[in-house]
Amino acid sequence: MNRLDYVQWDITSACNLNCLHCREKIIKNIKDDLTLQECKNLIDQIVDFNTHTLSIAGGEPLLSPVIEDVLMYAAGKFRRLVISSNGTMIDKEKALMLSDYVTNVQISIDGPNAKIHDYIRGEGVFIKAMKAIENLQTAGVKVDIRLTLCQLNKNLVIEYIDLAKSLGLSGAYLRRIIPTGNAKKNGLDELTSLELKECLGKAINYGRKIGIHVASADYFCQIEFNEKARKKAERIQKLNGEVIGGCAVGINSFYIMQNGVIAYCPYLPVFCGDLRKQSLKEIWENSEMFKIARSIRFNLKGKCAKCRYKFACGGCRAYAYVKTGDILAEDSGCWLY
Amino acid sequence: MQGILKVEDLKLPDDFEFHDEIEGVDLPICTICCDCCMCETGGV
Fold it and tell me: Do residues A81 and B32 lie in contact, with contact meaning Cβ atoms separated by under 8 Å?
């Protein structure tokens, strides 16, 4: 059975914002969210896999009526228990509560100033997020910030890394936009592969210079800009598919929706199983979609199929699907080949 | 939430090649975690 290291869980679909680039179309109906007892049962099942990281997002996770009880129950059961929040609800009291349970909080910040952040997320959100970071730091919680890269903020990455530095953070996370949900509806455009390369390279190199760890989920980015990752990728490639690097969906991670449905990815929600009807173990071992996920690298098309890092990277399947309607298509956002 | 897709919606080719005996590289405890990421290390 495949090892399960990392679980991402959207605990609620409720949100108090309606961001221009959100992958969700706004839903405030939380009637279908898992109950506290169901959440506890889910956590018990995840713990049975010795999973090291549980990352809880939403919607806005702090809007879940069971969030504190869930965090209390999950605390100490994982090496990393992470909350991703928009920061609008983290006052001093909430920050203290979080400090009791979580190991990290990630706050979404989509630009280095209120002008761009509030344009994407709504008026007054930037100042609330800044206050949230201050409250969390005062409470002793490790904070990271996350930027969704799109045409609107691609020229602001240096200022963004400077913001992370001025806030006393250790890192910043940059992820390219996947044009789905609100992003597609609102026409927030993704970067071309060369723009992405330039943008991430600039941010990573500047981060190294001033001591800010800049991260990106795209494995091809790591291969490009990190020698250690590149050497590891080359070692993986030599194993010819026995070991898979890059996106780990179905291999050693998965995603749970607020209603207990396990789906392929937040950006590509293909049904994998339903925790209200099946056990996690049953889904992990028998889901047809997970079997497909574990075999995708052998079936890729286009430049991903020919890429020298096919088994070590494999591109983003959600991006490929959103752009072409084919989960096996090449990841056109990648510049490697 | 966008609609949930079924495996059939992916229209995979009939000759899709299945491989059962694969394993993932260890997902280390990285210093940065994203809310969506299934990345290997999370950082560079």
Answer: no
- Helix (H) / strand (E) element for A61: namely none
Nearest to A123 by CA among A22, A28, A24, A16: A16
CB contact residues (below 8 A), chain A span 250-279, against chain B: 251-253, 255, 257, 261, 263, 265-271
Q: From residue A273, how far is each of A52, A279, A283, A298 by CA, in Å?
A: 22, 9, 6, 23
In this predicted complex, what is the ipTM? 0.88
Q: How many beta carbons lie within 10 A of that of residue A115, not counting itself?
A: 10
Phi first, then psi, for residue A105 (nearest 5°) are -125, 135
Residues in chain A within 8 Å Cβ distance of B7: 270-271, 288-289, 292
Alpha carbon distance A298, A310 (integer Å)? 9
Q: pLDDT tens, A193-223?
A: 999 999 999 999 999 999 888 888 788 988 8
